Amino acid sequence: MRFLTGLVMTAALLWCGWWALGSFGMRQAITVWAEDRRSEGWQADIGALSTGGFPTLLQTTLHDMAFADPATGVAVTADPLIIEASALWPGDVVVRLPESPMGFSAPDGKLVLEMAQGLMALNLHPGTDLELEALSWTSQAWEILDPAEPLLKGDGLAATFTQQSDPTTYDLATTVQNLTPGTALRDQLSIPADWPVSFDALRVDATVTFDQQWSRRALEDRRPQPRKIDLRIAEASWGALRLAIAADLDIDAQGQPEGTLAFQARNWRSILDLAERSGRITPAMRSQAEWALSSLADLSGNPDTIDVKLTLSGGFVRLGLLPIAPAPVFRLR
């Protein structure tokens, strides 16, 4: 009995030592990472660090956090941000986002995000590269403001980014529940009063292959760049309007796509109505666009639905051999 008691006490002491070492290591890693970013010209301010989570979690709380990347002009502020990892393997990390407002800024403007039970789960492969195995982001009700006026809100969010057997390939799935544009955005887009308050569906399901794995180098060096996109569905439904896109694209080193894109738009004239009422296109432009889109709708046999397959090549989106628009450039900054 005395031997068993001694064994338990020894194991407990060893675990306490392991937890203390892991907790110190997590805190030190955050501190060193912030110092490294400052040496590269970033703003990387943390007002205070506190630890907890004993005995099963390594928990570090960042207070009054402010980070800004001078290369992209992107900045974020948050308080508090809680980082948790399993004491057994600290590469499985959960980030609990604050329910207080988080600030985001970029060269084209500022936004405020408020999110209930926002949770980001990060799974990393063992090793110094910290290669990304899976990333997920879930929340309950959320709202984006600009900076104090509501722009968008939703009842829930679920997004996953999961590595496949090819380490450079990731599955992406996103669903937004009851996406609701704010009054200012509805007014700006001249949304009719009788349109539904919220989107009926908003989802994305795709597989993307990059030129390298996502790892710590994505923050410290450069972002992995997409080289192949298999977009199974990107769908948005709002009242009578439905847009759906599927694509199979190869991306070159300059971000230029080559491949096919299937596009479907139901009640597409509603989009032109919104664009004309909001002043984004003139009546003359509306007339030209309607003539062109009517021709596309005729190909599908339904005047209210556009259902066409397009080709992306040579820097253009083409209908058959006819170039109809510049192709998008796929490049992560």
Describe this structure in words.
This protein is elongated. With 333 residues, it is of the alpha+beta class. The protein is 23% helix and 47% strand. It has a 21-stranded antiparallel β-sheet that branches. The chain has five helices and 21 strands. It has helices spanning 2-39, 183-189, 217-220, 269-277, 283-300; strands at residues 43-52, 57-69, 74-78, 81-86, 92-96, 102-106, 109-115, 119-124, 132-139, 142-145, 150-154, 156-163, 169-177, 180-181, 201-210, 226-238, 241-251, 257-266, 305-313, 316-319, 322-326. The longest helix has 38 residues, at 2-39. Helix 4 (269-277) runs antiparallel to helix 5. It has a domain at 1-94.
Rounded to the nearest angstrom, the distance between the terminal CA atoms is 63 Å
Largest sheet: 21 strands, antiparallel
**Number of DSSP strands?**
21
Tell me the strand percentage band.
over 45%
Unreliable stretches: none
Average pLDDT works out at: 86
Based on CA inertia axes, which overall geometry fits? elongated
Helix content: 10-25%
List the defining traits of the structure above:
alpha+beta, 5 helices, 21-stranded antiparallel sheet, 21 strands, about 45% strand, about 25% helix, elongated, about 325 residues
Brief overview, please?
The protein is of the alpha+beta class. 23% of the residues lie in helices and 47% in strands. The chain is elongated.
Which helices and strands occur, and which strands form pairs?
Layout: H1 2-39, E1 43-52, E2 57-69, E3 74-78, E4 81-86, E5 92-96, E6 102-106, E7 109-115, E8 119-124, E9 132-139, E10 142-145, E11 150-154, E12 156-163, E13 169-177, E14 180-181, H2 183-189, E15 201-210, H3 217-220, E16 226-238, E17 241-251, E18 257-266, H4 269-277, H5 283-300, E19 305-313, E20 316-319, E21 322-326
Antiparallel strand pairs: 1-2, 2-3, 2-4, 3-6, 4-5, 5-8, 6-7, 7-10, 8-9, 9-12, 10-11, 11-14, 12-13, 13-15, 15-16, 16-17, 17-18, 18-19, 19-20, 20-21
Helix pairs in contact: 4-5
